[in-house]
Design goal:
186 residues; alpha+beta; Beta-Lactamase; 5-stranded antiparallel β-sheet; two-stranded antiparallel sheet; PAS_fold_3
Length: 186
């Protein structure tokens, strides 16, 4: 029995559900767990080797993905609140942690993302910011949107990572054991 709750066109995951995906360095999906498949309404054969952007919701500003890529390409993890769109056109908000995976020579070989349902209060605040960023991208360009985001963060005297931690109150997984506990135990 599914633990997903559908409200209009939005999917809400149960607190213990964790979506996991792994991409190559180009952002193409090489693995996703059963929860990711269920939520996004894909079969594994339909999504493997597809760009992760296959689940990107059109409301998501490109600015946020530019920030995410700039951080993970440096080999650092990042947390972000993402609105995704399923194969059937529904959407869901997830609090994602994206971590680069490295080989023995410290070269990035893939990226692992794991996420859970974003809290409603976080969605309310971040949705307003994302709407402004999208409008700036549409009306001007992505550089102007990046500038707006930078000034928004400066007003808060925070980096993007600090802002995410502040918003989410450190709701990310604290350690691998926490991640495993939420992934395996129903």
């Amino acid at each position: 029995m599914s633990k997903l709750k559908r409200v209009k066109h939005e999917i809400k995951c149960a607190t213990q559900q964790v979506l996991v995906s792994r991409t190559d360095t180009e952002g193409n999906i090489v693995y996703c767990n059963p929860t990711f498949l269920e939520v996004n309404d894909f079969k594994s054969s339909e999504i493997i080797r597809q760009p992760h952007s296959i689940v990107r919701h059109p409301d998501m500003p490109q600015t946020i993905f530019r920030v995410i890529w700039s951080i993970i390409e440096q080999g650092m993890p990042i947390q972000a609140v993402i609105k995704n769109q399923t194969n059937t056109g529904e959407y869901y908000w997830t609090l994602m942690t994206i971590k680069p995976q490295k080989d023995r020579d410290n070269k990035i070989i893939s990226y692992v993302s794991y996420g859970k349902q974003a809290p409603d209060k976080v969605i309310e605040e971040i949705e307003a910011l994302y709407r402004v960023l999208s409008e700036i991208e549409h009306d001007i360009d992505i550089s102007a949107a990046l500038g707006f985001l930078e000034s928004h963060l400066q007003e808060k005297d925070m980096t993007y990572a600090q802002y995410m931690k502040h918003l989410t109150k450190n709701r990310e997984f604290r350690c691998l054991c926490d991640f495993i506990k939420h992934s395996i135990i129903p």
